[in-house]
Structure formats: structure tokens, C-alpha cells
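Batch job 17 of 40 flagged for manual review because the log was empty.
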Amino acid sequence: MGNHIALLGATCKKMNVDAIVRWDCLKTEWYHPPAYPTYLFHNPLRTAETVVFDQPIE
């Protein structure tokens, strides 16, 4: 079954640089204690890149 693929779609977001993705580390943690928004960025490129993203106000 491919049900787990929907979780991947909910946790990752494409950034302004096409190859870089942002993973939301708290998206699937329903019972976590209060925490700051936590993201993991993956850059598969061999060069350093700058990404731009809006931090939601919570």
C-alpha cells in the first residue's frame, strides 16, 4: 500500500531553489511537548545555496 507516501507529501515542501526541500520535523509528532517550529533542509547540490521561506507565526 502507498498510504505512507501521503505523510511524505505533508512533511516536505519545495523551496525557491528547485533541488532543495524542507522537511517539517514536527508535522507527524502529534503528542510532542511545546516546541519551536523545527525544519530540516536537504541540499543535494555541491554548492552552498540560499533559500527563502516564511516562518509561520504561531
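Reviewer: the log was empty due to a logging misconfiguration, but the result itself is present. The longest strand covers residues 21-24. Unflagging and moving on to job 18.
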